[in-house]
C-alpha cells in the first residue's frame, strides 16, 4: 500500500470520525478509482471536478429563484439596502479570496491536509459546514500574506 493510499484512508477515517460526510465521500471516491485502476481519470478530475462541483453548488443556491421564492423587489433591494450592499461586497470579497486560495493550493498542495483536518475539527467540535477547500485556502492565503508582510 503506497503513501497516497494511506493518506486517503486516513482522510476518509477522519472524515467519518469527524462527521464530515463530504470529506469522507471524496476520499472514498478517490480510493475506489485507485483500487479499480482508474488513475487515468485523476488528471481529468484535477482539471474539471472543481468546476463541476461549483456548478452544482451554484445550482443549489439558485433553486429559490426557480420556485419564485425571491421576489423581484427583494432583488432590487439587494442593490439599494445596506444589507444588500454588504452581501454584494461579501460576494466580491469571497470570490477574490477563493481565487487566492486556489493559487495558494497550486503552490503549496501540502497545505490541503491541514485544511482538511481544520475542516473536520470545525465540523466535529464547532458545528461548522465544510463548504470547500477554496475558502479555507483563501483565508490561509490571506493569513500567509499577512504573516509575510509582518515579518
TrEMBL record:
Keyword Cell membrane: yes
Segments traversing the membrane: 49-67, 79-99, 119-147
InterPro entries: UPF0756_TM
Lipid bilayer topology: Multi-pass membrane protein
One Pfam family from the record: DUF441
Compartment(s) where it occurs, according to its Swiss-Prot or TrEMBL record: Cell membrane
GO annotation, cellular component aspect: plasma membrane
Lineage top rank: taxon: Bacteria
Keywords: Cell membrane, Membrane, Transmembrane, Transmembrane helix
PANTHER family in alphabetical order: UPF0756 MEMBRANE PROTEIN YEAL
Record-stated family: Belongs to the UPF0756 family.
Name under which the protein is recorded: UPF0756 membrane protein SAMN00808754_3234
Provenance organism: Thermanaeromonas toyohensis ToBE
Amino acid at each position: 500500500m503506497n503513501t497516497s493510499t494511506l493518506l486517503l484512508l486516513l482522510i476518509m477515517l477522519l472524515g467519518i470520525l469527524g462527521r464530515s460526510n463530504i470529506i469522507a465521500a471524496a476520499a472514498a471516491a478517490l480510493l475506489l478509482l485507485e483500487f479499480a485502476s482508474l488513475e487515468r481519470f485523476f488528471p481529468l478530475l484535477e482539471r474539471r471536478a472543481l468546476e463541476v462541483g461549483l456548478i452544482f453548488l451554484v445550482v443549489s443556491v439558485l433553486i429559490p429563484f426557480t420556485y419564485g421564492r425571491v421576489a423581484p423587489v427583494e432583488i432590487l433591494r439587494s442593490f439599494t439596502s445596506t444589507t444588500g450592499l454588504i452581501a454584494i461586497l461579501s460576494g466580491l470579497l469571497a470570490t477574490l479570496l477563493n481565487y487566492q486560495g486556489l493559487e495558494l493550493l497550486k503552490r503549496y498542495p501540502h497545505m490541503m491536509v491541514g485544511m482538511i483536518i481544520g475542516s473536520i475539527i470545525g465540523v466535529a467540535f464547532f458545528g461548522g459546514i465544510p463548504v470547500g477547500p477554496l475558502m479555507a485556502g483563501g483565508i490561509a492565503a490571506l493569513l500567509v500574506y499577512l504573516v509575510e508582510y509582518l515579518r
